Amino acid sequence: MPFLLLQCAAAPLVAAALIIFIKTGNRSLAGRITIGALGYTTLLLCMAVVKIINGGVFSETYAIGPQVSLNLLADGLSLPMALIINIICLALAIYSLHYVNHRIELIYPDADEKTATMYYKRFFFLFLFFPCGFMGVSFSTNLISMYLFLELLTVIPLYFIMAQFGYSDYISRYKVALMCLFWGVAGATFFMIGILLSFTQIGSFEIADLSQLAGKPQTFWFIVLILIGLSTKLALVPLHVWMPWVHAEHPTCIAGLLAVYANIAVYVAVRVLIIPLYNDMLPFSIPIMIIAFVTMAYGAFLTLAQTDAKRFCACSTISQISYSVFGVGAMTVIGIEGGIFYFFSHIIGKTILFSTAGILVYTTETRDMRQMGGLWAKMPLTAVLWIAAALILSAMPPFSGFVGKWQLFTGAFQSVHNHPAGLILVIAAILSTLLTLVYTFLIGIRIFFGPLKAPETAHELKDPPWTMSVPLIALALIALMMGLFPQPLINLLHSVVGTL
User: Fold this and answer.
1) Nearest-5° angle of CA 167, CA 172, CA 176?
2) What is the pLDDT of residue 454?
3) Half-sphere exposure of residue 308, counting CA atoms within 13 Å on the CB side?
4) What local confidence, expressed as pLDDT, does residue 459 receive?
5) Does the pLDDT at position 67 exceed 80?
6) Does one domain contain both 255 and 311?
7) Is 214 a domain residue?
8) Is the Cα dihedral 316, 319, 325, 327 positive or negative?
9) Do the domain assignments include residue 47?
10) 73 — phi, psi (to 5°)?
11) 384 and 248, same structural domain?
12) What is the extent of the structural domain holding 150?
């Protein structure tokens, strides 16, 4: 199919334009257009995966200027990431059909039907910038276009969706939206400075040409600048302070997308730094692993201290992202593949966990987990979804998290096997995974078991509509299949990472 990759990036924007320009009082049409566009791009990506598995590569060239292009490449690294992210976007679009109506009723109770419809259309218009940006980051071979797609995610949808549909009062929503904007722009600025520095050395913005930087004096500073920019998005300590606020206050229906936004920096690091500049990156291996371990431990203890359902999930994201960083930082083939595999697993598990927390807040009308209890009897499906997310994030077999962590820790052991201090670091990181098991299941037990709290409203408690539950069930099944049959995905990753 011609222009397949361009269609994957552009179809969401076409759908967004349709939502804005089609004049109709039927608000549900906006959601259906969004789902139709993402269903179409998911089909295209599935077709591309079949070709990649058979040994093919997709490459499309679209020149924009002398040094800036929209060249797109789909290989064994970028294509599976794009497919999994697109499926998550599709699942959350279906989840949002009912959820956004609920948010509009809560935030704008005095809005008439025309105004409520306008907000509904606005949400899905902004939502579609996420898949466009994610596809652009996945497939871009030019640093400028990759930067623009990263900024597209920061400036347009995150700010406006958080400001208009987030939690808390009007002023607080806009404060948190500005915090997200400022931190996003700060990280992107370091990224851009690094890009410009590389251009002064090699005269090109193409990622494929970055290998020409190898061994140059300025390469160290290029790597430092790019790592600072990406660490801001990854919420690594001490650049994590924005995550609990931003991730907790945005509407739950985009929580999984914000997890993708933060995690995708792991892919950028592999594509921009490790593959073209492997030898120059080796001195950064141990420092990256140390920072990742500190972040995963700190994030886990921070999560244990939370009583707010959304902030609980937000703090756990700080910890979980760091496992992918730890594996990639090991700088071994299996460690990098494990870090990317766990990135895929984490964004699926976090989408389920955060969306399930949204269901709890939606149903019980409180974010305080201390006021929840005994909900299994009233919401068994929601309880199963929470347990599934806990199993994925805790790396329990047979789910995908187990495969990812097995690989990344194996790669980490390979990296430090001759260094006693390094072995202690890896063992400590493995032990930290027990904290994930504790906080996900401990909170789950408190919420779903024991005596039923708030008995005066117990008759109103029930599992959510199918539009909110079925997409999460589908994601849980994908994580299960990735855990049971990981080899096809590992083979795809190895076709690129294995060249190291």
Assistant:
1) 85
2) 63
3) 12
4) 54
5) no
6) no
7) no
8) negative
9) yes
10) -135, 130
11) no
12) 1-167+243-269
